[in-house]
Each structure stands twice: as C-alpha cells, then as structure tokens.
Amino acid sequence: MPEQRLAVRKTYKLYIGGKFPRSESGRTYLVDGSNVALASRKDARDAVLAARKAQPGWAGATAYNRGQVLYRAAEMLEGRRAEFAALGVPEADVDAATDRWVWYAGWADKLAQVHGGANPVAGPYFNLSAPEPTGVVGVVAPASFLGLVSVVAPAIVTGNAVVVVAGDPLPAVTLAEVLATSDLPGGVVNILTGSPAEIAPWLASHDDVNALDLTGVADGELAVALEQAAAGTLKRVLRPGPGADWAADPGLGRMTAFLETKTVWHPKGF
Amino acid sequence: MFEYAPAPESRSIVDLAPSYGLFIDGEFAAPADGGVFKTVNPATEEVLSEVSVAGPADVDRAVAAARRAFAGWSALPGAARAKYLYRIARIVQERSRELAVLESLDNGKPIREARDVDLPLVAAHFFYYAGWADKLAYAGYGTTPLGVVGQVIPWNFPLLMLAWKIAPALATGNTVVLKPAETTPLSALFFADVCRQAELPPGVVNIVTGAGDTGRTLVEHPDVNKVAFTGSTEVGRQIARSVAGTGKRVTLELGGKAANIVFDDAPIDQAVEGIVNGIFFNQGHVCCAGSRLLVQENVYDEVLDSLKRRMAQLRVGDPLDKNTDIGAINSSVQLERVRALAAVGEQEGERWSPPCELPGQGFWFAPTIFTGVSQTHRIAREEVFGPVLAVLTFRTPAEAVEKANNTPYGLSAGIWSEKGSRILAVADKLRAGVVWANTFNRFDPASPFGGYKESGYGREGGRHGLEAYLA
C-alpha cells in the first residue's frame, strides 16, 4: 500500500480585529467533523470593540479605496473556488458570490450620487444631503454562502464595520481568510461562529452597536426578542421577510438600510 | 432696552368653539366614552376650549375609516392627489393669519415666529409634496403606498409637524390617523376643517385627540401599517419595542442635544445671532436646538460678553405681541421639567439670566445660560427642551468634534467659522443628521431632516422623506 500524505487540517477559529483567535471561553463544537470555536458573550464584546475601533478609519478611507478592497475580495475568492466547493458550497453560489463582491465594489463611489444630492431650498443656501455609514452593524447571517456575502458586502462597502454571527460556520471562517488577504483593515469584518440564540442578544442590547441585521434569524420568537432589545438604543433593525432569493438583483436596500443621511447647510453671499 | 409700544396681534380672527369632537371619516363626532380635556393658553392659563379624548373604540373607528378610504385614495391618479395637496397648501396660505394666531394661543410661541416660520413652512411643505404625488416613479422608492399610517406629533410645532407627517403620507397614497399633542390639539382640529374645505375624500385624514394612551392605542393598532412619531427619545424607545415583530414600518424623530461650535475665526456677531436663534427660538422647545455651546477657548470672553449683551435685548412676554422674542413655556409640566434641570445645573455650574420681568400668569422661564459646565454635567447631557444653554469650551478642532459627538443623540449641529475647509472637515466628522454652518435652525420642505443614533431614524423632507411611506 503506497504511503499516503497525511493532510494538514485547518483549525476553524473566530475572526476578530483581523486576527483569528480561539473563543476566550475555550469552547468548541463539532461541525462536519471539525472543532469550531463556540463564541461567547466576551467574544461578541471583543468583536464590537474591534469593529468600533476600525470603523472610523474605514469610513474615512476614500470610496475608491473601499471599492478596490471589495474588488480584491472578489479576486481572492475566485482563487479559492475549490476550497469552498470542498466545503459543499455549490459552485454556482461561489461564482455568484464573487460577482456580488464585484458588483458592490463598484457602488462604493457611486451610491452618494444616487442616494444623495443637492436640495433646492427656498433661500440663499448651499444645501447638500449625503449618505454616511450608520457605524457598527450586528449581522445574523443566513446559512447560504451567497447569502453571507450578500449581507456583508453591502453593509461594509459604505463604511460600516460588522460583527457577523455566521449561519454556516466553515464557509464563513473560510470567507474570513479571503477577507484577511484582501487588504481589508482588521476589524471591519468580524466573524463569530456559534449559536445565534446565545450571541445575538448581546449584540442586540450592546450600547455601541448601531444597527442589527436579522436576516439569518430563523426562530421568530428570537427575532422579536432581538428587535425589542434593539429598541433600547434605537438601533436600526433590518428584518426582511422569509424566503430570500439571493440570486436576484439585490437592489440598493441592503446598503441604504445601514446609512444615515447628513444634510449640510451653508449661507451663500458675497 | 428700547421701549417699544405694545403691538398685539388681534385674536378676533380666530373663532374658537367651546368644544371639539374627533375628526373621523370626514365628520366631527363625539368620542364613544365622552371623555374630554381642556386646552389652555400657556401665556395666561385661560381655557381655550374643551377637546375630546379618543378611546380605543374611537381610534378603532378612525383606523377603520382610514382603511376604507385607502382603496380609493391610493387608486387615484397621482395628479389628482397632487391637486388635493395643492388645494390644501393654498387654503393654508389663505388662512395663515388665523392659523398663526391660533398656534400662538394654544402653544405660547411668539406670533412673529408662528407667522414668519411655522405657517409659511406648513404651506410650503404641502406644496412641495403635492408635486411629488405624480412623480413617485422618479424618486427611486417604488410607487406602492403602505396603507394606513398612524402619526403622533409633539406640541412644539403643532401644525408644522402635522404638515411634515401628513403631506408625504398623502402624496404617496397612504391614508392617515393623526394624534396631535395633548397640550396643542387645536391647529390639527382646524386643519380638519381645511381638509373639508379642500373636499378631501372622507377618511383620508382623521384626527384623534387625547394624551399618551390615545397615542399608544393608535401605534399598537393591528390595522396600522406604518407608525411615524416625533417626540421624546423615551417614548420613541417604547414605540420601537411595542412594534417589534409586527412588521410595521416605523420612523422616529426624537430628542437632541446639539452642539453649536464657535471657532476663533468665526464672525462673532453672526455667531451670537446664531447661538441665540439656536437655543431661544421657540423658547428652546426644539428637538434640534443648539443647546450645547462649544466655544474655542481664546474667544470665550468675547463670545460670552456679546452673547450676554444680546440676551439682555430679548423680549419675553405676550406671545401675541409682534415685538416678542420669547413666548410662554408650553405647559406647567414642561415648566417643571425645565426648572428641575436648571436647578441641577445650578449645583453643577454657574447660572446667568438677563434681568427680565416675567408675567404673573402663565408659564414662563427666562432665557438662561450655564457656564463652567463640563461634559459629565446633566445640563450638558440631557435634553432640557427649554430656553437653557450649556456653555463649554475647547482648544482644537479635534477636541470640538470629540465633545460634539459625545452624546447618545445625533440630530443636529452647528459650526461657526470663516474657513471653508475647516467647516467641511468638521461637518464630515459630526455624527448628526443636520449640520448648519454659519447658520442655525433653518428648515425647508426640500431638505431632509432626521437624526443619527438615539435621535431616531428615517428622514422627513425632501426626496428622502418619501421613503418612509412607500413599500
């Protein structure tokens, strides 16, 4: 019997602040034979801290720069098609996810032109409305890999930072490896693996989280509880109806859901 | 101060009935359980009229009327909805003297402001959104209305807040049940008459009066598709919690604690006018009031001296006098709130008001500033919603931005500087929905208004204001 090379396995860890730590709790759970980090409340708080730290710099980067970073994510994803296929992600989904990064990359320096503009007020004033990122967004991601990319890309392209509770852990951590090699500043995307029912309530009630995307919450009661907790600091909550078609044209809604409009006035005069 | 002869506006133009019912399905009707409350003139404590309390059965009837009207109203061509709104805008213009006096009577605001700010903006708002009704396909939010909209508005700009709520809702094809504030119900009831004059189809606009319970019943009504609220952050939280899981759309325009930042290169005289307008406009009953003054340290003395001189010129008194700058506090409850926070401020910092004689009757509070305030003081953190200004200082632009953003609110902010690049850089960094540079408290129907963070979500005004009312 020919000697077979023993494979080097991957350790599936969290992605926080650009690093891949284990859960501070030391806990793991089994997913398809792999031990995956089981994120805790402390991990969620660390992730929010990392997101808050990274967000102003990311929002302050030029839109051109953010667009290139998202495009770089598409390049990196393209090169890892086989790895995602080995995790059971349909090839068509990986391709569509790659194309989605490219699509959103192009929005970075266009959305303000489509979603903002000059306001013709009745007086001698310059008046301009422009979209700005909401800040730190907690995301409960759907299990679909294309769904995961479709919720993360629109949230970050405008300058938000996200803390993602993964729906399907192995592809999510692998996506983190894509992002870690895409020149994305550490902390802009943070990915936690574990139980949404355990982690998401800490994000929903966290005072330093500005918005919540409940797309991946399958349990209706949990979704209502999270929405109620989010009311404490008046987080913006995105809770789409069931049965998302991730292959469909995403439209602008997922970007505008996590934007604020700022309107600046200035008098005109000689 | 110059002696001015009194120049009172006549109140005879307003014909007040001794009592008012609820406006449901195009008719005024008595409430099911017969509950009433009195609305008073806060400047004199005189009872103006008796107003109905809408109970659950009344709210139910109003929502049902709006639901019945929705099919026809939403099916109208946009151009027809536009014409109704243009009619309303015109009627408001024609009746603006009457409505301005009424607003001043019920709210306590100076007639000069009701006449020159509130009423022109009300008409402009209807005129602006009228034009959108047949152009929705170009706005980018679809053309499908949501259904019945429940709207709850505050007492600081009663008719203007009504216009901000009703104009975009009707333009987009929704029907409305609106609850005005408990202390200022009259202009909404007069607006019901404007709707009748415009021959607006019955049920398209319904006005239910009452206090918090009526508002809660409306917000929680299962057949309301969208809730729009302007008011306190605390009530905003309760609404957000109560609609969780219902799928209702919500927009919230809540409190603020705006920083008004004066740099050392600012035109000081203009800045002082802006500071005064920012905090004493409408007795400081303004969610976007510039209630935290941030002055660069090296011009602090100059700004403060000038501000105090200017404040000594403010005329506090009879709201119907056309010379009056500062009118009455809207209610005894609000006066107590302002007094309580000012008392706390006095323990923390130094209190100053110009010499000023307040009328014996009614609810009054002298324009007040607090100096020696630090960021942790309650007077610098909590919304007073009265003519009270907290003064802080800073040394560098970075420190100004840091202090300005150090609040859970994010509704508005002001910047005073002659340096364009500095204004734009600071405006970029302020976490607030409206930034006024070298001006303050400007409003326009074309200009989106709304907050960041705990000042709420959604925008009112402009193209952005349509989004909240379209599916």
TrEMBL record, chain A:
Per the UniProt record, one Pfam family is: Aldedh
Signal sequence: where?
Answer: none
InterPro entries in the cross-refs: Ald_DH/histidinol_DH (IPR016161), Ald_DH_N (IPR016162), Aldehyde_DH_dom (IPR015590)
Q: Which UniProt keywords apply?
A: Oxidoreductase
UniProt entry tagged with the keyword Oxidoreductase: yes
Keyword Oxidoreductase present in the record's keywords: the answer is yes
| Aldehyde dehydrogenase domain segment(s) | 35-238
The Swiss-Prot or TrEMBL record annotates one GO molecular function as:
oxidoreductase activity
- Supply the name of the protein: Aldehyde dehydrogenase
TrEMBL record, chain B:
Q: Sorted alphabetically, which keywords does the UniProt record give?
A: Oxidoreductase
- What are the GO MF terms of this UniProt record? oxidoreductase activity, acting on the aldehyde or oxo group of donors, NAD or NADP as acceptor
Q: Which organism is it from?
A: Spirilliplanes yamanashiensis
List, alphabetically, the Gene3D superfamilies matched: Aldehyde Dehydrogenase, Chain A, domain 1, Aldehyde Dehydrogenase, Chain A, domain 2
PANTHER family attached to this UniProt entry: ALDEHYDE DEHYDROGENASE-RELATED
What protein am I looking at? Aldehyde dehydrogenase
Listed SUPFAM superfamilies:
ALDH-like
* Top-level taxon: Bacteria
Q: Where is the active site?
A: 253
The family database entries (Pfam families) matched by this protein are listed as: Aldedh (PF00171)
Could you tell me which residue ranges the Aldehyde dehydrogenase domain spans?
A: 35-470
The record's listing under InterPro entries reads: Ald_DH/histidinol_DH, Ald_DH_C, Ald_DH_CS_GLU, Ald_DH_N, Aldehyde_DH_dom
Q: What protein family does this chain belong to?
A: Belongs to the aldehyde dehydrogenase family.
